[in-house]
Specification:
Low-confidence stretches: none
Strand content: 15-25%
Distance between the termini: 37 Å
Number of helices: 7
Radius of gyration: 28 Å
Shape: elongated
Number of strands: 5
Helix content: 40-55%
Length: 190
């Protein structure tokens, strides 16, 4: 698709570019990908045929998603949080006309400000910290039985005495394994 866009732009000539052509040029040269490099799930869908010239950009930041649909005379912007219903999503689309001094960089910066101030923005760093903590607790509980069994084996090997496993042996082995299982599942769900 990039080659088709490059050919189209060469035929049209830089002097005859409209706003959509400038966006096509930014896409073909990789500028759009650089502008959106700090976002997640960046997808760019250009379409170039006789009847339909568009480019769609979709990206996300934590739980906030942004979609921009560029057409020849105008563009649509939608910003929504994960878990929104389709009815609510339809109400969030806003159509804009290209201004005389339209700049994609400015639009993305403006949307970036709106994303960072969005009331539904989740602070995912808390979830990441929780996930790390749960994972660490899980691995500590997993290692307790291994260390205990290794120390017992080492004791038997060095002294030649046998060890009588009493009722507390189950607590030393099975409770940490159960805790490992629980916290491992919790860390994977976050």
């Amino acid at each position: 698709m990039k080659n088709k866009i490059i050919d189209y732009l060469k035929i049209k000539g830089v002097d005859n570019y409209n706003d959509l052509d400038n966006i096509y040029d930014m896409y073909a040269s990789g500028i759009i990908n650089k502008l959106l490099s700090h976002y997640e799930n960046v997808h760019i869908y250009p379409s170039l045929d006789k009847k339909n010239k568009t480019i769609q950009i979709h990206y996300s930041y934590n739980n906030i998603n942004v979609g921009i649909d560029f057409f020849e005379n105008d563009y649509d912007v939608v910003m929504y949080y994960s878990g929104i219903t389709p009815k609510e999503l339809d109400k969030l689309f806003v159509k804009y006309k290209y201004q005389k001094d339209f700049s994609l960089e400015y639009l993305i910066k403006k949307l970036d400000n709106q994303i960072k101030n969005h009331p539904k923005l989740k602070n995912m760093s808390k979830d990441q910290k929780k996930k790390k903590m749960y994972s660490m607790i899980a691995w500590i509980n997993f290692s307790i039985p291994m260390v205990t069994m290794s120390l017992m084996a080492l004791y038997v090997f060095i002294t030649g005495n046998s060890i009588q496993a009493g009722p507390y042996f189950a607590f030393i082995i099975f409770i940490p394994l159960l805790m490992w299982f629980i916290f491992d599942i919790k860390s994977r769900k976050l």
